[in-house]
Design brief:
The chain has about 190 residues and is an alpha/beta fold. It has helices spanning about 1-25, 45-55, 80-90, 110-120, 135-150, 155-160, 175-180; strands at about 30-35, 40, 60-65, 95-100, 125-130. The chain has a single domain, classed as Alpha-Beta Complex (Protein-Tyrosine Phosphatase, Chain A), CATH 3.90.190.10. The chain contains 7 helices and 5 strands, in the order αββαβαβαβααα.
Length: about 190
């Protein structure tokens, strides 16, 4: 019996590790946020981004990175990498690239620019991305859900991670508190 339990636990660990490797290193944390409308990801290499854009008929890419970010996380945002991505996207006909560089918690000015982009139906489908696809991209996905899909702050925050405990979206953490206190335009 102990052997079966051990094999079961080992299988769960192997499956979890395999999913993690696929999600992070092979699929760049790419995820659909709103069916055929909004997607989020980490950095997709310039030689692979066209495939994602074509497969999902993406019209706009919102890059939430900017050179020399001041955040303390492991986000090596190198200007040449941003330029390479911008050039790769701009080569694709009918696709608009927006650089909306932001720290982990955005300023109101950045959110206003984001909402201006998202208010334009011609920009959809949209791909939001940051370096890893689990911080800023998730935060702006939550803002999208509150603004355009009527989600509550709590619902939107809960969808940022599988497990909130121990994440940067916890209550008492800057991103968590930002989403808890965010006021959608319809509530202002």
């Amino acid at each position: 019996m102990k052997k079966k339990i051990g094999l079961f636990v080992l299988s769960i660990i192997v499956i979890g590790a395999s999913k993690y490797v696929y999600d992070v290193h092979l699929n760049y944390n790419f995820k659909e946020i709103s069916e055929n409308k909004v997607y989020k990801s980490g950095v997709i290499p310039p030689d692979k981004i066209a495939t994602y854009i074509q497969n999902h008929q993406i019209n706009s890419v919102i890059d939430l990175r900017f050179p020399h970010t001041t955040d303390k996380l492991n986000n090596p945002e190198i200007p040449q990498e941003l330029t390479a991505e911008k050039e790769a996207v701009e080569k694709l006909e009918g696709v608009t690239y927006f650089n909306l560089g932001t720290d982990q918690v955005p300023t109101q000015e950045t959110v206003d620019k984001f909402l201006e982009i998202m208010d334009d139906p011609a920009n959809y489908p949209v791909l939001l991305h940051c370096y890893h696809g689990v911080g800023r991209a998730q935060l702006f996905s939550a803002i999208y859900r509150m603004e355009y899909e009527g989600w509550s702050n709590q619902e939107a925050r809960e969808q940022t991670r599988v497990l909130l405990k121990g994440s940067s979206f916890d209550e008492g953490k800057p991103k968590g508190d930002y989403l808890i206190n965010y006021k959608p335009r319809s509530n202002k």
